[in-house]
Write a structure and sequence with these properties.
Pfam families: ECH_2 (PF16113). This is 3-hydroxyisobutyryl-CoA hydrolase. By secondary structure, the chain is α/β, with parallel strands linked by helices. The chain contains 18 helices and 10 strands. It has a 6-stranded mixed beta sheet with strand order 1-2-3-5-7-10, with helices on both faces. Strands 4-6-8-9 form a 4-stranded mixed beta sheet.
């Protein structure tokens, strides 16, 4: 396969530290906020597969260098491929990434992700599927895809749809940012450890000689705290979120929010409505349908369906919003995307349905997920 424009050696972008029975993987592109490029994804996949077979490895820790865990997938590289007329190379990137997501979701050994900083998009896919997710006061979680003309992928339709009430629809459609305390309370994080105690936690974990999930849990519990939610947290709006985001269509969600806003001058409502109005109408519609379908599907089914969706997005036959969103937000940075279709009412059900169908394209194949065996109960539950 052609390169995705990386000049650094694969080993440099993922640092490996060995301690007895523990392997610590550090995502090492701090200047790019550890955005996952093709080389990093391939390397992580290779390492996780090797560690699963290696009896000397009992625990895997993943963290990021600098102020991010991982700010997402390197979509700028994917857009370059599309602009050069090769959407299939972009599809190959997602194929690898989704395979890694599936491996992490069904991993037979404990994996601890230390989310001390930004964790967005592809970064969430590389951590939220794992068994232990440690947030801190520096954590910032978001799935900002609808603002880019994409949709929450990397298996997000699985984990967002399992958040309390309709919080997943809210987070996925608006791209809102959550802090560490909010991540813990809604279940995206399993623990909250103040950043000043992380070095002690890692030191304790590196002495582990067991793959027993309960033993790992007990160690992380020792360093964990129960943080207080900020006064303005969206989590205190669960009643309004459930009332509005449970609606059947994006139009109905928006109109329910606007109705709430007429009854109260509320900055949270205003910003939620603004976020929806700025996002790609096509993205909003396919994202809502994706999360709704995800509620009834296992993690593998979600990834197979999301792969179909992402191939349609890359091919750009129904809409070219992904290319336009990346231009406006990441490349030209004018923050003024021209969406097409430009309004929710112009996005027909037929258009939406196309994203969920197999591609009628010579040589295109469905996502083939690796066969998994000897899975722990926690992983079987996700299938």
């Amino acid at each position: 396969m052609a390169s995705f424009g990386s000049t650094r050696r694969e080993e440099d972008s993922v640092l490996v530290q060995q301690n007895l029975f523990v392997r610590t993987l550090t995502l090492n592109r701090p200047r790019q906020l550890n955005a996952l490029n093709f080389e990093m994804i391939s390397r992580l996949l290779e390492l996780f597969l090797a560690y699963e077979k290696d009896d000397n490895v009992k625990l895997v820790i993943v963290k990021g260098k600098g102020r991010a865990f991982c700010a997402g997938g390197d979509v700028a590289a994917v857009v370059r491929q599309i602009n050069e007329g090769n959407w299939r190379l972009g599809a190959y990137f997602f194929q690898k990434e989704f395979t890694l997501n599936y491996l992490l979701a069904t991993y037979s050994k404990p994996q601890v992700s230390i989310l001390n900083g930004i964790v967005m998009g592809g970064g969430a896919g590389a951590s939220i599927h794992g068994r232990f997710r440690v947030a801190t006061e520096n954590s910032v979680f978001a799935m900002p895809e609808t603002a880019l003309g994409l949709f929450p992928d990397v298996g997000a339709s699985y984990y967002l749809s399992r958040l309390p009430g309709f919080f997943g629809e809210y987070v996925g459609l608006t791209g809102t940012r959550l802090d560490g305390a909010e991540m813990l309370v809604c279940g995206l994080a399993t623990h909250f450890v103040p950043s000043t105690r992380l070095s002690y936690l890692e030191e304790a974990l590196c002495k582990v000689d067991s793959s027993d999930f309960n033993i790992i849990q007990a160690i992380i519990d020792k360093y964990s705290q129960n943080p207080t939610l900020k006064e303005k947290s969206a989590y205190y709006r669960m009643d309004v979120i459930d009332k509005c985001f449970s609606r059947r269509t994006v139009e109905e969600i928006l109109s329910a929010l606007e109705k709430e806003a007429t009854n109260s001058a509320d900055a949270w409502l205003t910003s939620t409505i603004q976020a929806l109005k700025k996002a790609s109408p096509m993205s909003l519609k396919i994202s809502l349908k994706s999360i709704r379908e995800g509620r009834l599907q296992g993690v593998g089914q979600c990834l197979v369906r999301e792969y179909r969706m992402v191939c349609h997005v890359l091919k750009g036959e129904v809409s070219k919003d992904f290319r336009e969103g990346c231009r406006a937000i990441l490349l030209d940075k004018d923050k003024n995307p021209k969406w097409e279709p430009s309004k929710l009412e112009l996005v027909t059900n037929h258009m939406v349905e196309q994203y969920f169908s197999k591609l009628d394209d010579e040589g295109w194949e469905e996502l083939e997920l690796p066969a998994r065996s000897n899975l722990p109960v926690t992983a079987i539950a996700k299938l």
